[in-house]
Every structure is written in structure tokens, then in C-alpha cells.
Amino acid sequence: MNKQRAQYIDKTSIQTLREGLEEYYTLNSHVMDPRALPTEFGKILLAHDVSHVVYGCDTSLYDELKILPLIWWTSDYTFGDHLKTIQNPTIDSTVRDMYKDFLEARGVLWLYVSIGFVLLQLLPELVFLRLKTCHRQRWVPFMEFESLLDRPLLEIRQDFDLLPLMK
After folding, report:
1. What is the helix (H) or strand (E) element at residue 95, kind and residue range?
2. Distance (Å, whole) CA 125 – CA 164
3. How far apart are CA 158 and CA 89, in angstroms?
4. Model confidence over 124-152: pLDDT tens digits?
5. Do residues 161 and 104 make contact, with C-beta atoms less than 8 angstroms apart?
6. Residue 59 phi, psi (nearest 5)
7. With contact defined as beta carbons under 8 Å apart, do 85 and 44 qualify?
8. pTM for the predicted model, two decimal places
9. CA 17 to chain centre
10. How do residues 20-56 score in pLDDT, each as one tens digit?
11. Domain ranges of the chain
């Protein structure tokens, strides 16, 4: 991620979700804009990117590893939904292609060692997040986020009780 701190990461940001998403793509030019992909994969990738903005997460390995559990524990997209999604042959092959160049450049060993080190740092926060989210009553819409696009991020985060989960 670019060194410039994104406004959408500020837990009290008053940007709309749409503005935050545009900022996300501007600051992360290495991220493929899924709006250009008319596939199932494009839809799931867009929902993932929207989640980065809603939860105030950047594209560091730490936040990438944190965002999936956050999504599973606070949205209507569960771990079971995720397993079904990644078993879809179209999505599975697209994900493999997406990471192929990355893995060839860095290597599988580097990836797993990096993930291990980051997970050690992230584990206390994941335990905290799980304890805070285990009795949720309100679920963030994952795939059906369009109605949130023109709402301020602060309002979304308040409505779905996300502020206590954010730093």
C-alpha cells in the first residue's frame, strides 16, 4: 500500500463508501479493479475490496489476514459461504492465476513464513475480535452492498457496530 494514509482507514471518516472505494483504488494501483471484470470472480473481489473500505483495512499482509475473519464474523458472508466460493472452479482457477506470478517472484516458502510471522502478531487481535463479535445481531451486507455506497463510512460503521472493532 502507498505510504500515504488513506482517509477511509480513519474510523471516523465521513467519506461515503463510494468515495472510500475510489480512494482505495487510487492508493492501491497494484490492486486489480474488479469492476472491469464481468464475472463471478469480479463480484466477489469487489465485495472484498468494499470490505477493506468498510472495515478500514489496508492491503498489508496483516490487514489481508485480518479481513476475512472480520467479514465472516460481522457480515452475512460466512466461513461456509467462503468455502463454497473458493470451490467454484471458475473462481478457484482465477485465484490461482492471480497468485501465480506473485508466487513465482517470491516463492511459496517466503509466503508461508511471512504469513506465520504476521499471524503471530495478529492472533491476539483476532481473539479480541472474535470475543467482540460472537453475539452479533446485525450483519453487514457483503455481496449486496450497493445500498451503502452513498452513505458516510462513519454512519455505516455505527449502524453495524463496527467502531469498537477498529483501531
Report:
1. helix 89-106
2. 12
3. 37
4. 999 999 999 999 999 999 999 999 999 99
5. no
6. -105, 20
7. yes
8. 0.90
9. 13
10. 999 999 999 888 888 887 688 889 999 999 999 999 9
11. 7-165
